[in-house]
Specification:
Elements: H1 2-17, H2 19-28, E1 34-38, H3 39-45, H4 47-55, H5 57-70, E2 83-87, E3 106-117, E4 120-129, E5 136-140, E6 167-168, E7 174-184, E8 198-204, E9 216-230, E10 233-249, H6 261-271, H7 276-282, H8 292-303, E11 308-309, E12 315-316, E13 322-326, H9 332-342, E14 346-350, H10 356-359, E15 361-365, E16 373-377, H11 379-382, E17 387-391, H12 398-401, H13 404-409, E18 412-417, E19 420-425, E20 429-434, H14 447-450, H15 455-458, E21 463-467, H16 473-498, H17 504-517, H18 523-536, E22 540-541, H19 543-562, H20 572-588, E23 593-594, H21 596-613, H22 625-628, H23 633-653, E24 657-658, H24 659-668, H25 673-685, E25 689-693, E26 696-699
Parallel strand pairs: 1-2, 8-10, 13-20, 13-21, 14-17, 17-20, 22-23
Antiparallel strand pairs: 3-7, 3-9, 3-16, 4-5, 4-6, 4-7, 7-8, 9-10, 11-12, 15-16, 18-19, 24-26, 25-26
Helix pairs in contact: 1-5, 3-4, 4-5, 6-18, 8-20, 16-17, 19-21, 20-21, 23-24, 23-25
């Protein structure tokens, strides 16, 4: 009787609050089979009904579903397999805050999908046949264990005998699509090196197969528990899982960062300050001295450009990739960890310990999928729409590093394994650090050779910075002072925290040191500033900015027009990088237009990088091949000349040509003897030449 009353209340609620949605559902039924009901509407209609949904969701949702399936709709459609799904639950429970008191209650959990199984059928109503009287009856299936009858069902007309095994009639049983996902706490919610916790959720019917690893979702459902089993039997410990009722995909960027009206006022006040850009730069790792250009690049990376979906369905990335190459002890790792801490979404990983599966994604067979193939997200997928920092990228295995090519430019990861074809998003900015192979940076050797990275991967970075540790008395004095002051402030802070007092002179020194290390914009405000900007600001280029970018690009390419033999100074990738950086700078000032000043600022930054990375040390000209191919046009031309010299000498000496003769002839043509020897060595390494005997060289035919 009570159940009927509750069903009647639900029917009345659906007619009052969800009538237009019901008509819409009946028109698209059975393709669409879910009616989403807002919890707030239930609370307004009847607070007791809303409490019942939270406290006894099994009974309440079953009554609501019965009401939905029995309701009379003018379209004449019977929604006999429709589902009622409750969304917008006001209280979200953090995964680490789930307690035994939540079991059996309706809760909403927000998290990151790290694993997802394939969609497979699950039996909800199993139909059995008695082997003696051939009576057919059904058993409802709930929970994790398959329920089999012990005796023939007398109530429905069976013989009532106890039977060891009944025949399962699969064709008459009722199935529903089911998928299991693992929800993990978002990395940005973890502070102070906490380990992320996870919970498994089961999604059924039309909400299964809707998510892929890397998605940020809110799952509303009933928390359940089951007893753990070991080889010695049952244990007193229970594990939890979630029966998903509804699934909400987080569409808007950085929804997890709550920005109040007060925060918005602070954000707008900061944006209106004339020196906001300089303040943002000063807020990046103030405890590290210098590196203004790198800190500026990191600010631009935080804001990133705008990702564009073009009319022909091509996607152009807006994220900015930055590579730091430098000598040991120049604070590369410190900068990486600082930016990850500052970013609204950030993830840090080390190249040495990362595999391609750990960085991108993997298809694995494990206990989670009960022996089936499962898709598991890696670091770049989990950092989607954020920043991924990869330290010591040069220490990665070659096969693992190759997986980054697609992830950086197309911003997807393709998985093709065991018949599972999937494409996951990696829409994140990559901040990578690498050490030169031989300990210190050598400007006469291509970067690609020094850091053990393929030129194809190098060309995908928008900005490459070289951090060279060169002795300079004035700079060294400033750096040393800064380091000493930083450590001194740290010592005083440790004393203050543990003993609780400082003498007057120490207190003055502490205040002074603290001021120099205090970021110009506090971390929490900066995080909200970046999130608000990325959510609301989508800048476009002004005509002045367009012409500045055009002038810079054509101006650099011009050396190739005037001289056919000139090297390629920059490629279209550098122009795209300029536009992205310009968008990021406009976003940093919360502006809708990219001004000429923005264009000039990013042109200076790109020029700074090009001069330190792409200049041919022999000619002083810009040569993009120094980075993207690993050699320069000068060296290629010289190698071609040496090849011609060897071919000429073959006419006189046969296949085996004396090395001295080659060096003499090359010297006559104006080449330096040392450079020629160096190129002959490279040609030997590349398998073009070899030495069959002492002092002679020969082409590999």
């Amino acid at each position: 009787m009570m159940q009927d009353m509750v069903t009647e209340r639900w029917e009345d609620f659906l007619k009052r609050y969800c009538w237009s949605e019901l008509i819409e559902l009946s028109n698209s039924y059975p393709e669409r089979r879910s009616l989403c009901v807002k919890f707030a509407d239930m609370d307004i209609y009847d607070p007791n009904l809303a409490d019942m949904v939270l406290e006894t969701p099994d009974v309440a949702i079953a009554s609501a579903t019965d009401a939905l399936r029995e309701i009379d709709i003018p379209t004449g459609v019977t929604l006999n397999e429709a589902n009622l799904r409750i969304i917008n639950l006001p209280r979200k429970v953090k995964i680490r805050d789930i307690r035994s008191s939540d079991i059996g209650k309706l809760v909403a959990i927000e998290g990151l999908v790290t694993k997802a199984t394939e969609v497979r059928p699950r039996v909800v109503e199993a139909v059995f046949e008695c082997p003696f009287c051939h009576h057919i009856f059904s058993v409802l299936q709930t929970g994790r264990q398959f329920k089999e009858p012990r005796e023939c069902d007398q109530e429905s007309g069976g013989c009532g005998r106890k039977v060891q095994r009944f025949k399962l009639l699969i064709e008459k049983s009722k199935f529903v699509n089911s998928q299991k996902i693992r929800l993990q706490e978002s990395p940005e919610e973890l502070r102070g090196g906490e380990l992320p916790q996870a919970v498994d959720a089961y999604l059924e019917d039309d909400i299964s197969g809707e998510v892929t690893p890397g998605d940020r979702v809110i799952v509303t459902g009933i928390l359940r528990s089951y007893q753990k089993m070991t080889q010695y039997g049952k244990t007193p410990f229970f594990d939890i899982y979630m029966d998903g009722n509804s699934l909400e995909l987080k569409q808007e960027e950085f929804e997890e960062i709550l920005i109040t009206e007060g925060d918005e006022r602070e954000i707008n006040e900061l944006a209106n300050q004339s020196d906001v850009y300089e303040k943002l730069i000063r807020s990046i790792a103030p405890s590290i001295y210098g590196y203004e250009e790198i800190k500026e690049a990191m600010v631009l990376q935080l804001f990133s450009g705008t990702a564009k979906e073009l009319p022909d369905e091509t996607r152009v990335r807006g994220d900015i990739h930055v590579l730091l190459v430098g000598d040991p002890g120049v604070a590369k790792s410190q900068l990486l960890t600082y930016l990850v801490k500052l970013a609204p979404r950030g993830l840090y990983t080390g190249g040495k310990s990362s595999t391609s599966a750990g960085l991108t994604a993997a298809a694995i067979k494990d206990e989670f999928g009960e022996g089936r193939w499962t898709l598991e997200a890696g670091a770049l997928v989990l950092a989607d729409k954020g920043i991924a920092a990869v330290d010591e990228i040069d220490k990665m295995e070659k096969k693992d590093r190759d997986a980054l090519h697609e992830a950086m430019e197309q911003q997807t990861v393709s998985i093709a394994k065991a018949g599972m074809m999937a494409r996951l998003n990696t829409r994140c900015s990559l901040l990578a650090a690498a050490n030169p192979k031989f300990g210190r940076f050598d400007k006469y050797t291509p970067i690609a050779e020094q850091i053990n990275m393929p030129p194809t991967l190098m060309s995908r970075f928008d900005l490459i910075f070289t951090m060279v540790d060169q002795p300079n008395e004035e700079e060294d004095m400033k750096t040393a002072e800064h380091i000493i002051e930083t450590h001194y402030a740290g010592e005083l802070l440790a004393r203050l925290e543990n003993i609780g007092k400082l003498d007057r002179t120490e207190e003055e020194s502490f205040q002074k040191a603290n001021q120099t290390m205090e970021p110009a914009v506090h971390g929490e405000l900066l995080r909200k500033y970046v999130a608000w900007s990325k959510r609301n600001i989508f800048p476009a280029m002004t005509d002045e900015a367009k012409s500045k970018f055009m002038e810079f690009y054509i101006g650099l390419r011009r050396q190739g027009y005037e001289d056919e033999e000139a090297p390629v100074p920059v490629t279209a990738r550098q122009l795209e990088a300029l536009i992205r950086l310009g968008e990021a700078r406009a976003r940093a000032g919360l502006r809708d237009k990219i001004t000429a000043e923005d264009a000039e600022c990013v042109i200076n930054l790109v020029t700074y990088c090009l001069k330190r990375v792409s200049v041919d040390p022999e000619t002083g000209k810009l040569d993009t091949d120094w980075v993207t191919v690993g050699t320069t046009k000068t060296k290629r031309d010289r190698a071609r000349s040496i090849r011609e010299i060897i071919k000429e000498l073959e006419k006189e000496y046969g296949d085996e040509v004396p090395l001295e003769e080659v060096l003499d002839l090359a010297e006559e043509e104006g080449m330096e003897r040392e450079k020629v020897e160096e190129i002959v060595d490279v040609m030997k390494r590349d398998g073009i030449l070899f030495s069959p005997g002492s002092g002679v060289i020969k082409f590999v035919r």
